[in-house]
Amino acid sequence: MFNKQKRISRSKLPEWTALSAHQKKLGDLQIKTLFEKDHARFDKYHLHHEHIMLDYSKQPITPETIEKLMALAKACNLESWREKMFTGQIINTTEGRAVLHTALRTPDDTPIIVEGENIIPHVRTSLARMKKFCDKLRKEKKFTHIVNIGIGGSDLAPSMAYEALKHYSDRDIHVHFVSNMDGTNLAETLRLVDPKKTLFIVTSKTFTTQETMTNAHSARTWLREQLGTEDVSDHFVAASLNIAATKEFGIDEDHVFPIWDWVGGRFSLWSTIGLSFCIAIGFGNFQALLDGAHSMDQHFLNAPMEENMPILMAMIGVWHRNFMDLPALSITPYDQYLWRFVNYIQQLDMESNGKAVNRKDQPVTYKTGPIILGDIGTNAQHAYFQILHQGSTIVPSDFILTAKTHNPIGAHHKMLISNAVAQSKALMEGQKSDDPHRHFDGNRPSNTIILDELTPYALGSLLALYEHKIFVQGIIWDINSFDQCGVELGKTLAKQIINDFDKDDTCPQTDSSTHGILNHIKSM
Ligand code: F6P
């Protein structure tokens, strides 16, 4: 079990106070000036790992900042926590679970023991079953429409990856995603599919999530009506931990793909939750995605701290959040295929680090996870970038670019890249003007991450990069990044409210706003 040793608050660590003093000393440090003073700044502040390059030169940091940030990481025992995660120790202490999404992508057969059992053979068996199932479906084309029903990680993961890797997908297999409780999501999806040729994949770790189960039941009712038969079990598949509930729903045992409690919902892309997009892109490409993630795992485990991409990105984020008091992070992928990427990262980051109680069950005395916002470039430029350039709050940015496009049309890609680079330059340099409305302060930090090409392998590495960055920040902030107690209260209240919904006078004892809203809707 996790050793609840006494730890002093992070903000009382000498390494933390040294960073505060360093920040004060730097004062009004201008990133632009750092470039003017050092023409080789880019050479010193960029990193490669295989197909990914990280340029962090446009950050308000000096060698001393990096040194001090790494000293803080060491003081927070980052290396030992990393070891605990990879070896399956119970680091999700509130739920009493190991955190082993990395085991889903390891080619290494070294046993990882969870509750006395080696999990690696289970991972291998599960991948072999996924492969067999995908190969058969892709060959037979008995089903040409796949409808994934899930929510949260059980939707964002497969839908993001399906969109990101569409270039590699079999265009005769159409994958749809239904997540929302709003019946419109299901209704509009069902308009697009041929019932005879549709396979529903119900992805839910718990198989109790209200939205998913409501959608799954309604989809089954629709299919029964359409096919004129009660037995539609051939058209349903599940990815779940709750085998009993899948059975109760009527899903055949050989159509149930397991997931384990040591895989968190928002880290489940690498598991059977990825079945829908695995069918679309083929198992070989799914395996390449796992391999790319594994390669980033190895980099995270083995690269020295100062050259370690996830650690550097994480510690720069800590610098922004805790020492510059910046509340948000904008992520802009300049690749149309990554149009769901920010939604995915929002859950990954904010459900993990949106917490204010530390591992000693005490309120934290410092800021934790940032608000993540973003959209694809160049659309984001025409939407919220105004606030990045001239807003009263500084919002750091991650720009994600792909050097080669899958769709070279005329000068599009050159123009796209030029826009991305222009944005980070404008944010950093600003522009002096006598007209205050046309003046740009500049000095707004950014990272630029460049993938050689958006391949399954590179996407795997990119996603693992963000996973580990978020893990590192959770360690620095001394919070449990792997539970999600914050989403429970709303769910419980929704259940109470639905019970009262059909009563004549809705919840008269509740607050007047809740009462008023419900009565107004019911009067329509
Ligand atoms: O929103 C809470 C949450 O538990 C997420 O962490 C998870 O991704 C989502 O609900 C879906 O859960 P399940 O896969 O159990 O349906």
Offer a concise description of the structure.
With 524 residues, this protein is of the alpha/beta class. The chain has 19 helices and 13 strands.
Helix content range: 40-55%
The unreliable regions are: none
Ligand species: 6-O-phosphono-beta-D-fructofuranose
Biggest β-sheet description: 6 strands, mixed
SSE layout and pairing:
Layout: H1 14-26, H2 31-37, H3 41-44, E1 46-49, E2 52-55, H4 63-75, H5 78-86, E3 113-114, E4 117-118, H6 120-140, E5 145-149, H7 153-164, E6 174-178, H8 183-190, E7 198-203, H9 210-227, E8 236-240, H10 243-249, E9 256-258, H11 275-281, H12 283-302, H13 309-323, E10 328-334, H14 341-353, E11 371-374, H15 385-390, E12 397-404, H16 412-429, E13 446-453, H17 456-476, H18 488-500, H19 512-522
Parallel strand pairs: 5-6, 5-7, 7-8, 8-9, 10-11, 10-12, 12-13
Antiparallel strand pairs: 1-2, 2-13, 3-4
The structure holds 6-O-phosphono-beta-D-fructofuranose.
Overview of this structure, please?
This protein is of the alpha/beta class and 524 residues long. Helices cover 45% and strands 12% of the residues. The strands form 3 sheets. Strands 1-2-13-12-10-11 form a 6-stranded mixed beta sheet, sandwiched between helices. A hairpin with a 2-residue loop joins β3 and β4. The chain is globular. The model has no long low-confidence stretch (mean pLDDT 96). Bound molecules: 6-O-phosphono-beta-D-fructofuranose.
